[in-house]
Design a protein that fits this description.
This protein has 64 residues and is mostly helical. It has helices at residues 4-15, 19-30, 43-56. The model has no long low-confidence stretch (mean pLDDT 81).
Amino acid sequence: MKNPAAQSLGRLGGLAKSKAKTAAARRNAKLGGRPKKKVRPNWKAYAKQRAINERFGDSDVEMI
């Protein structure tokens, strides 16, 4: 359970706009902004396709 007082305090801090914060955001944007999340492979689909390939001997079927 989250502390409501801490939530509201953090929310106010995140809404703060200062010249320093604006300048930092612009510097970060010049470097490409927030990094994209790495795409995680869908291991369940991979394992399922591999099990099907092993069971039916379809070695020429491409893995997902």
